[in-house]
């Protein structure tokens, strides 16, 4: 298939623009505290060797959510393909740090090269991927075509395009066909997106509905020493967790906790805001509410009426302290956060109703009794009190959570097998 004019124009433009974008991207990574050699991965200069003992499967994602969403899938594929090596690329310093804490076996991380001839040639010459899996909407034209022309089998998973992107692809049907033709398999998040992909000239026989991989991210890491220390500090106090809260939600959570303390005086709230840099602002809210507080960034353990967990990378340990978690980003139209991470800890899930980013996941969990949705501080306090004091209800929710988690694991195994077949990776890699 000949390259359309728009693709050739982008190749020419990228050659002119790469010095500007290279300086910008390297500067961003340097300002985030990364060494210069790692920042130069953006230019295609590898900082890790390619292991030649088996096939290399490359997973490319954009940022934190997309990167973490593929970890469980890589773990499943790695068990079936014991000789395979995995390369994960992403674009942000935050994604690199979080991936470093949760890296699967036989996997390394690099920053994705810029979509220009020089960086891509260096990157592909070093890594020589046998297969490549792209996540969601990371559709850089040269990256896709050059990888394909290098002989790698390719798939797109968790495909999700915005309405604006779909409209743009519709305007250039030849270019869309040229780009999407590289994929042996395109798995979308839902039926509507599968139809949209076909409508913009993705090969219909290669498009199928998959699952939302973000709803099946691998379990959060747990620091067993930290968990032991925190449990010792809490003693026999009952605990509930409010995690991934956003601006405007902490007030509701704190009001609910104040009401709960009248009923359960020794109750401890572990409050983990979504963005730890908001720690000072959240600490001021807690002080204004009149509640006593200990704070993780002050080196403290749970001890007051509220424990402010304003760090990154420790949320899995805090989940280990409670059977009950309220997940933020859901009391206002933010879209909600991933309940599967909570479910994997074995905890019952409470959430607000604004969960469009994980609507299908919450619908399934609510249907089987693994999650409950709330609207107000009074509603939240009522649900927490019912579940803390009602051992039977709490136990029933935990049983439902375990069933939900097992079902998602089966789905993930199915997706892993479809990818292995589509990418011609065989039974043993």
UniProtKB/TrEMBL annotation:
GO terms for molecular function: Kdo transferase activity. InterPro entries: Glycos_transf_N, Glycos_transf_N_sf, Kdotransferase. It comes from the Bacteria. It comes from Sulfitobacter mediterraneus. Pathway: Bacterial outer membrane biogenesis; LPS core biosynthesis. Belongs to the glycosyltransferase group 1 family. Glycosyltransferase 30 subfamily. Its EC number is 2.4.99.12. One of its GO terms (biological process) is lipid A biosynthetic process. Its main location: membrane. Residues 38-215 form the 3-deoxy-D-manno-octulosonic-acid transferase N-terminal domain. The record marks 136, 214 as: Transition state stabilizer. Involved in lipopolysaccharide (LPS) biosynthesis. Catalyzes the transfer of 3-deoxy-D-manno-octulosonate (Kdo) residue(s) from CMP-Kdo to lipid IV(A), the tetraacyldisaccharide-1,4'-bisphosphate precursor of lipid A. It is found in: Cell membrane. It catalyses: lipid IVA (E. coli) + CMP-3-deoxy-beta-D-manno-octulosonate = alpha-Kdo-(2->6)-lipid IVA (E. coli) + CMP + H(+). The active site is at 66 (proton acceptor). This is 3-deoxy-D-manno-octulosonic acid transferase. The lineage of its organism: Bacteria, Pseudomonadati, Pseudomonadota, Alphaproteobacteria, Rhodobacterales. One of its GO terms (cellular component) is plasma membrane. PANTHER family: 3-DEOXY-D-MANNO-OCTULOSONIC ACID TRANSFERASE, MITOCHONDRIAL-RELATED (PTHR42755:SF1), 3-DEOXY-MANNO-OCTULOSONATE CYTIDYLYLTRANSFERASE (PTHR42755).
């Amino acid at each position: 298939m000949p390259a359309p004019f728009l693709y050739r124009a982008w190749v020419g433009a990228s050659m002119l623009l790469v010095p500007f974008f290279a300086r910008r991207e390297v500067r961003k990574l340097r300002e985030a505290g990364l060494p210069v050699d790692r920042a130069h991965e953006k230019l295609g200069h590898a900082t890790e060797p390619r292991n030649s003992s088996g096939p290399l499967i490359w997973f490319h994602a954009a940022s934190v959510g997309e990167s973490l969403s593929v970890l469980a899938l890589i773990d499943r594929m790695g068990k079936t393909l014991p000789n395979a090596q995995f390369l994960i690329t992403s674009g942000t310093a935050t994604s690199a740090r979080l991936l470093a804490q949760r890296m699967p076996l036989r996997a390394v991380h690099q920053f994705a090269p810029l979509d220009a001839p020089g960086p891509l040639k260096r990157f592909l010459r070093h890594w020589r991927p046998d297969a490549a899996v792209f996540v969601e909407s990371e559709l850089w034209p040269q990256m896709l075509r050059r990888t394909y022309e290098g002989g790698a089998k390719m798939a797109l998973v968790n495909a999700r395009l915005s309405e604006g992107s779909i409209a743009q692809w519709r305007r250039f049907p030849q270019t869309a066909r040229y780009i999407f033709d590289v994929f042996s398999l395109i798995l979308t998040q839902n039926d509507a997106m599968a139809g949209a992909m076909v409508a913009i000239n993705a090969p219909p026989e290669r498009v199928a509905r998959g699952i939302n991989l973000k709803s099946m991210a691998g379990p959060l890491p747990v620091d067993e020493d930290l968990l032991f220390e925190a449990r010792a500090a809490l003693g026999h106090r009952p605990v509930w967790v409010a995690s991934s809260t956003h601006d405007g939600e902490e007030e509701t959570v704190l009001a609910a906790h104040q009401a709960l303390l009248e009923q359960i005086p020794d109750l401890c709230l572990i409050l983990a805001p979504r963005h730890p840099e908001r720690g000072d602002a959240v600490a001021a809210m807690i002080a204004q509410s009149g509640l006593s507080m200990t704070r993780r960034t002050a080196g403290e353990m749970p001890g007051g009426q509220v424990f402010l967990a304003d760090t990154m990378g420790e949320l899995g340990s805090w989940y280990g302290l409670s059977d009950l978690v309220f997940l933020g980003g859901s009391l206002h139209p933010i879209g909600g956060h991933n309940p599967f991470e909570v479910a994997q800890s074995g905890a019952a899930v409470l959430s607000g109703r604004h969960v469009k980013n994980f609507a299908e996941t919450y619908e399934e969990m609510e249907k089987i009794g693994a999650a409950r949705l709330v609207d107000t501080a009074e509603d939240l306090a009522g649900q927490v009190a019912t579940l803390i004091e009602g051992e039977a209800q709490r136990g029933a929710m935990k049983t439902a959570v375990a069933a939900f988690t097992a079902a998602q694991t089966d789905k993930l195994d199915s997706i892993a097998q479809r990818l292995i077949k589509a990418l011609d990776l065989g039974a043993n890699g």
